[in-house]
Amino acid sequence: MKTVNRGVYIDLKTDFGFKHCMGEEKAMKSFLNAILSEDYGTIEHLEFLPVEQIRDHPELRGVTFDLRCQLDNGDDVIVEMQNYTHPYFKTRANYYLYNLMDKHIKRGVSWSEREEDIPRLIGVFILGVPMEELKEVVTRTAEFDIDKQTEFWDRMRKYYISLPNFQLAVEKSGLTPKDIWLETIKNLGNMENLDPEIYEIADEALLKLIEKAKVSALSEAEYAQYEAELKVLSNRGTVERYGFEQGIKRGLAEGRAQGIAEGRAEGRAEGLAEGLAEGLAEGRKKEAIRMAKEMKSNGIDKKLITQITRLSLSEIESI
Q1: Of residues 275, 270, 282, 288, the one with CA closest to residue 243
Q2: d(CA 272, CA 118)
Q3: Nearest to 79 by CA among 27, 143, 118
Q4: E strands present in the chain
Q5: Which residues, other chains included, contact 294 with Cβ-Cβ below 8 Å and sequence gap of 6+?
Q6: φ, ψ (nearest 5 deg) of residue 77
Q7: DSSP one-letter string for 192-232
Q8: Nearest-CA neighbor of 158 among 143, 145, 148?
Q9: Digits of tens for pLDDT over the chain (319 positions)?
């Protein structure tokens, strides 16, 4: 039997914690209203949709979203929690939305036969780790006319929410629903960092989410899954540090060798860059395999393991 402090709450930055707490209509509606209402008005109703998007051709890559819902106006929204650095995350975010677009365009129907455009596709990407080029708490992107600086196509928007950039204002009287939600998502797993005054101004949906997020309310199976994901979350920093350190060593060695041989500073720079990239990739892969083995031994579903480790199903089955 698990023994936990009843005051301990789920870290919403874990895959399990995020889906367990946010996969409920009232909580998601409150959150999306806090983030999107300025642009799209108030959401009165939403419906959760399947998250797995299987491509028609076996050679094409499918995708599984964290959470996906359709708003009362027909807009299709995916909400993703990202907790590790990825050099091409913006490309991946676009891929997710274009994959979603494919589901709204029926095969065999010509463009001239369409009676209306596709619904708006909105991606909300919550980043638990910093992305260097994102300096704001919320960065909104759309397709723009570069010369006129006006929105050229309104069917797709992305919202990047950088939790490391968020700090709760000292003056609580001016807090917005967005502030309260971001404070909760960022710090609920570490209650000592969560400002207690949010309880006084949070709406009913957020208060219910906090109640649902008590670790002591989890079943044995849920707790085992959550505990495994906490290890994954804590190990991701180790993976990246390991890869970085190995890359530094490798890159310096290769850079020196090439620089001496060729007598050019460019050799060092090239070797260093290649070593950094290779070392980081190797470190991540080794740690992902180790974590997959541990999760398999704990009986965690293979599909969930693929989402957490980013290994393919065939790789996991072969471990």
Answers
A1: 282
A2: 46
A3: 27
A4: 46-48, 52-53, 63-64, 67-71, 76-82, 121-127, 138-145, 150-162
A5: 228, 231
A6: -125, 130
A7: GGS-TTHHHH--HHHHHHHHHTBGGGS-HHHHHHHHHHHHH
A8: 143
A9: 334 343 489 999 999 999 999 999 999 999 999 999 999 999 999 999 988 766 555 555 567 889 999 999 999 999 999 987 778 899 999 999 998 998 888 776 788 888 889 999 999 999 999 888 899 999 999 999 999 999 999 999 999 999 999 998 877 778 899 999 999 999 998 877 778 778 888 999 999 999 999 998 999 889 888 888 887 777 655 444 434 344 444 444 554 555 445 545 455 555 555 555 565 566 677 877 888 887 787 777 787 787 777 788 888 888 8
Return d(Cα 32, Cα 307) in angstroms, integer: 23
CA–CA dist 274, 316 (Å, integer):
28
Residue 206, both tokens: 């957020």
The DSSP call for residue 166 is -
The token pair at 69 is 């819902």
Phi first, then psi: what are they for 22, rounded to 5°? -95, -10
